[in-house]
Amino acid sequence: MNMHRTPRRRRSLPVLAAAATVAAALTGPPARATAPVAPAAPAAPSPGAPGLGDPLLPLDGNGGYTVRHYTLDFDWQAPRTPFAATATIRATATQALSRFDLDFAGNVLRSVTVDGRAATFRRDGDELVITPAAALADGRTFTVQAAYTADPTQVRHRDDAISDYGWIPTPDGTVLYPQPNGAKMVFPADDHPSLRAPFTFRVTTPPGLEAVANGRLADRTTAAGGRVRWTYESGQPVTPQYVQLAIGQFTFVDRTGPHGLPIRDAVPDALAAPTERYLKLTPDHVAWLEQRLGPYPFDRYGVLVGDTDLGVALETQGLALIPRADLLGTRVNAEANMVHELTHQWLGVSVALKSWSDLWLSEGHARYYERLHSEAHGGDSLATAMRQAYRRHDQWRHDAGAPAEPTEPDLFRKMRYDGSALVLYALREKVGDTAFERIERAWSTRCRGRAAGTQDFVDLVSQVSGQDLSEFLHPWLHGPTTPPMPGHPDWVVDPVAE
Question: Per-residue pLDDT for 305 more than 80?
Fold first, then answer.
């Protein structure tokens, strides 16, 4: 401590005056008292948009609110027989709403309430237009309840790989095939692939029939007359296109996957024995995919075997629907379909689509890993399959658009499957195996639980690889002709047949 003090100097008045002048110049004159500013008036209530404006299916989804939870109450009677149903939807307004829409088609609507008060409603094509008794303020949470008669014969058709979708009948009940936008035939929905919310399913069945849905069985009670009420809780949010609800005579088979993952298959009684030789392979499939894509993204999994003539499987969340024919043939074909739908749980279900034009990311990845697994388990090599796809690629571009440039009628064509897997194969050939594996794991883990699109993927590829690959990927994803395949100068594309 310094014990010597320096004498203090007095500051002259001119210096102090100058300092005050500078301070005044910097701060300006003293602030004048002003009248308080009135807060802006809240926006007047207006209608929510009837769709999200998706380039391919613009009326899918709705504007003006966010769904927080769905509860579906179904009083199932018999196959192909209408039954009483109620959908209760809790949502939050994202604007002041004078009215709003839900996607809904093909059922007889009996009543609609908003927060317990009768609401005015009308049908406009596949839109259910609801006008509440009083406008809803921006930020308000509200509850819509729609009582209707569900018709399990409702089905629509597409002329691509989907074919029939909606309610798919079985000999003793039903399974659901909501993709791409068939959920609205089952319940009122905010139905777009980028949107999801938790579900509660409460389904009453006659004696001798079981019900199964996404998530865990939370309750099973028997009422008068032997009717059984099944309650399932999805827990994690579900996109409407990945909702599953099946009714029939099922055998439930429980097994355990990696890290204690609960796996429960629902198999029609007569198919339980002949399909078990393949269904028991699911834990191995989960482990194989976890090595490449990171931890399984949901809290349970299982296979629902469809006792139908349905030609395609569907990656319904946590309970993949696989038709019986896929599990009654060869092991190579059975595993190919099982791995394809399981891959979707990471890529397509957990990492959801921002728009329908991003479908190549979902189907391309599922087909890529299906082919990669098949190569190591008795099927054709990946290179052989990709060379065949390369030959046809210009034709597919001509017929159905580039991988990220689909048209609505051609959405589920070959281009979105093998044609899109080929883009991933080209990327692997460009960056090498190690970088490609880092890209894939980053994509499935960083985007887990949210919607992501084509540009997100391109950006991530460039970031993880350490090189700008946008110019490489753009012609593969958007161009009119197929680029050269890296490392394979001998691969050729067949001429296009008009």
Answer: yes
Domain-embedded: residue 80: yes
* Residues 428-450 pLDDT 10s: 999 999 999 999 999 999 999 99
Q: In terms of domains, do 237 and 133 share one?
A: yes
Q: Which of 329, 348, 367 is the last residue of a domain?
A: 348
In tens, the pLDDT along 45-78 reads 999 999 999 999 999 999 999 999 999 999 999 9
pTM: 0.90
Measured CA to CA, the distance from residue 71 to residue 77 in angstroms comes to 19
Task: Report, as an integer, the average pLDDT of 342-347.
Answer: 98
Does residue 315 share a domain with residue 390? no
Same structural domain for residues 381 and 427?
yes
d(CA 266, CA 322): 11
Instruction: Look at residues 108, 98, 239, 79 and name the one whose alpha carbon lies nearest to residue 170.
Output: 79
Judgement on whether residues 122 and 239 belong to the same structural domain of the protein: yes
Domain at 325, CATH number: 1.10.390.10
Domain containing residue 453: 352-478
pLDDT tier at 176, thresholds 50, 70, 90: very high
